[in-house]
Design brief:
Length: about 600
């Protein structure tokens, strides 16, 4: 017997500011659905999710949620004004005696419930909203960019949780690796139309390109037909006016159809121009030691960065990645050790806090008042890599329309703010780029473009990111910061680092530590049947993990059984071999954990 859908939208139409966001939209979410909701920044993804959550009322259409079904929505900017701590907010909807659920989630997300609301950062507030949703465990979860402001360890924990859950969810994310791992269905918003593909994000881009190619072909055929009919109308209508008026009306309809077609939004005109060539040696760091606020950032750290290197810095939030970047560029000083910067360096910085944007000033003013970009006496001009250009024209290169030029930056979405900051960054020549969390809020197409221009950039790049796929595509080396001053450089991107670091598999299979937060009830930290709550959950989850690892080992073994693979695709052979070793190590650790926990239970 078919189960009733968790959510139905029928005939939804919504207009903001005269422009239709959706028109006659219908969709259904079934129990167990794992849906990736994708589309360009500004296409309406978050708006659609708010309609699904019942937070935005459409102009027309109906939203149906069966009685008894709960729909949870992760708020981007939650209202915490009534709460003293983030834990008070996150636990506010939990039934009496169920606070232990928040303790388990807080442990995985590395979220401190005791943080006062008054001092919480934007990232901490978003983690609180995510923790609240996961602890409530509704039948349908609506997750809008849940990985923003999470470090890779927390992202992997969240990925594992969502992989194992039976709860249906709709997910917006720019993180390709996250989307590929979790989605089984794809909803694509494009110019007000929502297309559904009964497959996950893997292969989405090929599907999108196929649709666009078919659309271009149909538009070309329509243009040819209009041209043919228009020629007939000019040359042949006078002798057959009465009996051919239907054909004239058909031509008018063709023209109306062509006019109604909405052209795809182009891509931003990203371009980077290197300044004067730097010296071959860009940065030489020797014996760096730095402690800050009681936290050891690095201890005895050495690093050499050469011209053209792309170095990614990874590690948990708060480990000191940004502080290390500042030391390497001379903005901060180490307690011990030395840093030598190369010659002719011109540094451009993309900061994760967007502090280089004045939120209350307009887009126009943000581009023209910067002394590095202003043309003296010409406030409507911006200096773009040495050439003056009108502000509006430059903004259009980055997909902003003329009406937005005088709007305050505060009115922009997160993705639009990131795009504006990239516009400021790319207006100046540079040969050393510092990119601190550049991928937050950017859509997949913009990430593709950013990746392409970084590939063509002649200078050097230092990158902080939690986007594993982006790091794999960009980095030539990865510096892993593991806390307590430990930092080590590895060749390659994230996947290469994970394969090279032998203890990685062991750490991912260790039982998590007991919750220590005061948000947990006393009984949540006591042992039942010889195990803590977290250990018991670990014991329940291990069989699925073991089965998954065994399946992956079988697939990798089958791939490596191809005798010609090494000769034909040596890189693929190497990575498959490393992955097989990694999975076998993880399987041994998981089986050992299971035996230990089962015996204690």
């Amino acid at each position: 017997m078919a189960r009733a859908p968790l959510l139905q939208l029928s005939g939804i139409s919504l207009t903001f500011g005269g422009n239709p966001v959706f028109d006659d939209l219908s969709l259904t979410v079934q129990p167990g659905d794992r849906i990736a909701l994708v589309g360009r920044n500004g296409s309406g993804k978050s708006t659609l999710m708010k309609v699904m959550a019942g937070l935005v009322e459409p102009d027309r259409g109906i939203r149906v949620v069966p009685p008894g079904v709960t729909v949870g929505y992760m708020e981007q900017e939650p209202d915490l004004s009534r709460f003293a701590t983030l834990g008070d907010f996150a636990a506010s909807s939990l039934p009496e005696g169920q606070d232990y659920r928040l303790a388990v989630v807080a442990e995985g997300l590395k979220f401190n419930p005791e943080t006062p609301v008054a001092t919480a950062s934007g990232g901490e507030r978003r983690r609180a909203a995510l923790a609240k949703l996961l602890a409530e465990a509704p039948e349908l979860m609506l997750l809008d960019e849940p990985t923003n402001h999470l470090d890779i360890q927390a992202i992997e924990w969240l990925e594992a949780e969502l992989t194992q859950t039976r709860t249906a969810f709709v997910l917006i994310s720019h993180d390709r690796a996250f989307l590929r791992a979790l989605s089984q269905t794809t909803l694509w918003i494009d110019r007000g139309e929502v297309r559904r593909r009964e497959a996950g994000f893997e292969g989405f881009e090929d599907w999108r390109e196929t649709i666009w190619a078919e659309e271009d072909d149909a538009r070309h055929k329509l243009d040819r037909k209009i041209k043919h009919e228009a020629k007939w109308a000019v040359e042949g209508i006078s002798a057959r006016r009465k009996r051919n008026m239907g054909r004239v009306r058909a031509l008018q309809q063709l023209r109306a159809d062509r006019k109604a077609q909405i052209r795809r939004q182009g891509t931003a005109a990203f371009a980077l121009e290197s300044g004067p060539t730097s010296g071959k040696k860009v940065i030489e760091a020797t014996g760096l030691t730095k402690a800050f606020g009681g936290t050891q950032i690095v201890k005895g750290f050495d690093l050499r960065v050469l011209r053209g290197d792309r170095v990614a810095f990874v590690g948990p939030n708060g480990v000191g990645k940004t502080t290390l970047l500042k030391m390497l560029t001379g903005e901060a000083q180490p307690d011990h050790g030395s840093i030598t910067l190369g010659t002719n360096l011109e540094i451009a910085v993309f900061d994760q806090t967007r502090t280089r944007l004045d939120l209350d000033a307009s887009l126009w003013d943000n581009l023209t008042v910067d002394p590095l970009m202003r043309v003296s006496g010409a406030s409507d001009q911006v200096m773009v890599r040495g050439t003056p250009k009108h502000v509006v024209a430059y903004l259009k290169d980055f997909l902003f329309d003329e009406a937005q030029a005088r709007a305050p930056v505060r009115s922009l979405s997160g993705g639009e703010r990131a795009r504006l900051l990239l516009a400021k960054l790319m207006a100046q020549p540079s040969n050393l780029l510092i990119l601190d969390e550049p991928t937050n809020d950017l859509d997949v197409e913009t990430l593709d473009l950013l990746q392409d221009i970084l590939g063509e950039y002649d200078g050097t790049v230092l990158l902080v990111s939690h986007d594993r796929d982006f790091i794999d595509r960009i980095a030539t080396a990865t510096v892993a910061m593991e806390g307590e001053g430990r930092a080590q450089a590895y060749p390659g991107g994230w996947s290469d680092y994970a394969a090279q670091r032998p203890q990685a598999a062991d750490e991912t299979t260790k039982p998590a530590a007991k919750p220590t937060t005061t948000a947990a009830k006393p009984e949540a930290s006591t042992k039942a049947n010889g195990l803590s709550f977290t250990e018991k959950k670990r014991l329940d989850d291990l069989p699925d993990l073991i089965a998954k690892l065994e399946s992956e080992i079988a697939k990798l073994s089958q791939l490596l059984a191809d005798a010609d693979l090494f000769t034909r695709e040596p890189v693929k052979f190497r990575r498959a071999t490393e992955a097989l070793t990694d999975r076998q190590t993880a399987l041994e650790a998981a089986e050992s954990d299971w035996l230990d926990l089962a015996e204690r239970a």
